[in-house]
Amino acid sequence: MMIGISKVQDVLENYKSAVYEKDAEKFLSIYASDVHIYDCWGKWESKGISSWRENVIKWFTGLSEDGELLKVDFNDLRIEEETNVAFVYCAVTFAAYKGDSGEKLRQITNRFTFGLKKVNESWFITHEHSSLPIDMQTGKGMFELK
């Protein structure tokens, strides 16, 4: 685990840069070893960093094989921070670009909630929940922001 992320906002900045760089270890460094994740992609849930690592490596490998760069933006961000716990909720937009041309390929927005805990003066994500609203007529996830 990375030591030294003293601000919740810096955890989110690390998330963004690690995704763009496709750096799995940097990305995973912001998660607690006992993290519990409810994901709307792939596996229903991941319990523990080893399980989450499998998903992250598969995700980043796919992006690398396709030659894509992924930019992350946090929208409607709300951070509630106490001394040793924090709660974050937001809409997260993932925009994929072709690595060689910079052409925008696609974009989706998911709803995210993060629970964080401070350990030895560093913040770590202990719980993450991503979701999509469902269109009741089609039964499909809605990927656009609002």
From TrEMBL:
Top-level taxonomic group: Bacteria
Domain SnoaL-like residues, every copy: 8-134
Pfam families attached to this UniProt entry: SnoaL_3
Name of the protein described by the UniProt record: SnoaL-like domain-containing protein
Organism, scientific name: Fictibacillus phosphorivorans
